[in-house]
Amino acid sequence: MGMGRRGAGRNGRPTLEQVAARAGVGRGTVSRVINGSPRVSDRTRTVVQQAIADLGYVPHRAARALAANRADAVALVVPETEGRLFNDPYFSVIIRGISAVLADADMQLLLTLIRSPKERQRFAEYAAGNRVDGVLLVSLHGEDPLPEQLTEFGIPGVMNGRRSAAETFPYVDVDNVGGAQLAVEHLIGRGRSTVATITGSLDMYGARSRLDGYREGLRAAGRPDDEDLVHYGDYSEESGYNGMRELLRRRPDLDAVFCASDLMAAGARQALREAGRSVPDDVALVGFDDSAIARHMDPPLTSVRQPIEEMGRAMARALLVEINDAGDGPARQVLPTELMRRASS
After folding, report:
1. What CATH number is associated with residue 107?
2. Number of neighbouring beta carbons within 10 Å of residue 267
3. What CATH number does the domain containing 28 carry?
4. Sheet harboring 230-232: ordered strands across?
5. 182 falls within a domain
6. What is the rounded CA–CA span in Å between residue 340 and residue 200?
7. Are residues 100 and 168 both part of a single domain?
8. Domain tally for the chain?
9. How far apart are CA 243 and CA 303, in angstroms?
10. Which parts of the sequence belong to the HTH lacI-type domain (predicted)?
11. Do residues 77 and 123 both lie within one domain?
């Protein structure tokens, strides 16, 4: 069989193999040229481009992805239940930021919920089968081993937040300590004497950081750190409600509360209403996220704004850089927070 037909497509169109044979290079080199990889010499690129022109080769999108060993897909992994994913507006906003960047890059976004070690292992094996080009991780708890599994398999990844101060995996985070400190300074500045807090899940570094920021805010103002004023929640509306009831039972004299999420602040607001405490006259309330919840509460909620959508965009951009081997080291970004003052405080 003559060279001209070897590896030709079923419709007679020239194939990648024919281009490689014509240029005298391997098919991997051709795919690198087609995909714009910088790891090809100018001379080789010219030879391959000439062969493409001579044969009239048109790269098919799926074939191009296959040739480059690419799936043109990114997995977004959320180790949470469906209830948490759909009830907390944080997730919809960060997904909006991620999907905007990936859509511009013609990448498919695959959403994966992981609720058990078995599901985590199954996903790691799925990702290792070249089914995705990279992985975005949102809302990791504790010392989740998934980032190490991805590294072991050579799969690019970026996480939202960190697991510890010594995080080595690429991440995009926000200034959680500084944001919480702003909230407490604001409440003390408004003349509040007894400031309580409802924390997020303390197996998450971000929640621990917000608690640290709360304590630093008190310390800076010369206030005692009173354990009776701390309730350990889990970011859910229910934990905000239960936490507020418990704090009122322990410390009926409290006159301000900093909640580590807007969703918990909404739960706390309900408990205060039931207890006959008005906001902000009796108890001032501050949340964290500056989500739609904050603007729609009655009264509107003062909240620490974290740029959630921008965080999603930054994560997706950082992952694309990793996938294309175009970076100079892992992404480590910390975005600023600011306090949005409203009527609740």
Report:
1. 3.40.50.2300
2. 23
3. 1.10.260.40
4. 230-232, 195-199, 256-259, 284-289, 302-305, 338-340
5. yes
6. 20
7. yes
8. 3
9. 18
10. 14-68
11. yes
199: which strand partners?
Answer: 232
How buried is 287 (Cβ within 10 angstroms: 0-12 exposed, 13-18 middle, 19+ buried)? buried
H-run or E-run covering 108: strand 108-113
Q: Are residues 24 and 55 located together in one domain of the fold? A: yes
Are the C-beta atoms of residues 305 and 290 closer than 8 Å to each other? yes
Q: What is the pTM of this model?
A: 0.79
pLDDT digits (tens, 9 = 90+) for 314-325: 999 999 998 887
At 186-212, the pLDDT tens digits run 999 999 999 999 999 999 999 999 999
Phi, psi of 160 (to 5 degrees): -95, 115
Tokens in use for 68?
């480059």
Q: What is the dihedral of CA 209, 210, 214, 219, to 10 degrees?
A: 20
Quick check: helix, strand or coil at residue 16?
A: helix
Q: Find the helix or strand (DSSP H, E) in which 217 lies.
A: helix 205-220
Which amino acid, 288? F
> Please, which residues have CB within 8 angstroms of residue 71's CB and are 6 or more apart in sequence?
65, 108, 130, 131, 132, 133
Domain containing residue 42: 3-67
- In a shared domain, residues 59 and 136: no
Extract the tokens encoding 205.
Answer: 């570094």
* Residue 342, in any domain of the structure: no
